[in-house]
């Protein structure tokens, strides 16, 4: 099962998707995949600016073979400018690139060779409801990166305090549980879980759940 990450809750009804890829033939293929899965694709998304259409309720799908500077800038623009979830479809990601993608605020990552219509639709719907996911191998890679950082010299104590309830929620996030499953485990409402995570990320200036888990690991909470 993919590891679950994400941030802001939003409705999964009437999901609209924008597709961002330089190769027009590949773009047509991605649009076809999403259409076959029953998702509505906005053909001309434009840029997320004040003068353009309101794209705050859309999910952006970005496809790139590798994370170059242009792709990284596009990911940041879509997440921060449009304040919306992003699904990144990549052919490959090295460890430093994975960290950069997550720091951009990307909701979900899908390997290009696994990007079937069903897999893409799953990632889009997961992102739209405020969660996200990483392929298992990437989640393992992320935890390895943080583990090495700890072994080579992490801070002596937490830079910012995490309450026991926050640690409990983050521990379950690290185990790959979704919001609903975390709520059931801790006997909280889903709104409480989302509020706890939002509070952590706002206070620590973190971009998403994976970033929050990495912070908690680095600071010795998990």
TrEMBL record:
Protein name: Response regulator transcription factor
PANTHER family per record: TRANSCRIPTIONAL REGULATORY PROTEIN NARL-RELATED, TWO-COMPONENT RESPONSE REGULATOR
Coiled coil regions, renumbered to chain: none
Domain of life, per lineage: Bacteria
InterPro entries associated with the record: Sig_transdc_resp-reg_C-effctor, Tscrpt_reg_LuxR_C, WalR-like
Domain HTH luxR-type: 155-220
Keywords for the protein's UniProt record, in alphabetical order: DNA-binding, Transcription, Transcription regulation
SUPFAM superfamilies recorded: C-terminal effector domain of the bipartite response regulators (SSF46894)
Organism: Kineosporia corallincola
């Amino acid at each position: 099962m993919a590891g679950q990450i994400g941030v802001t809750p939003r409705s999964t009804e009437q999901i609209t998707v924008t597709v961002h890829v330089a190769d027009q033939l590949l773009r047509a293929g991605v649009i076809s995949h999403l259409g076959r899965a029953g998702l509505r694709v906005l053909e001309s998304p434009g840029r997320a600016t004040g003068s353009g259409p309101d794209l705050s309720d859309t999910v952006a799908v970005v496809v790139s073979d590798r994370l170059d500077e242009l792709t990284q800038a596009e990911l940041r623009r879509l997440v921060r400018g449009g304040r919306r979830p992003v699904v990144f479809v990549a052919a490959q990601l090295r460890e430093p690139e994975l960290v950069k993608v997550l720091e951009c605020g990307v909701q979900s990552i899908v390997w290009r060779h696994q990007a079937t219509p069903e897999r893409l639709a799953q990632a889009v719907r997961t992102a739209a409801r405020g969660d996200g996911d990483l392929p298992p191998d990437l989640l393992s890679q992320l935890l390895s990166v943080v583990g090495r950082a700890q072994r080579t010299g992490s801070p002596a104590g937490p830079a910012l305090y995490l309450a026991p309830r926050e640690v409990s929620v983050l521990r379950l996030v690290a185990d790959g549980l979704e919001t609903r499953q975390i709520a059931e485990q801790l006997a909280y409402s889903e709104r409480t879980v989302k509020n706890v995570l939002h509070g952590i990320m706002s206070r620590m200036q973190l971009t998403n759940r994976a970033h929050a888990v990495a912070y908690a690991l680095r600071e010795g909470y998990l």
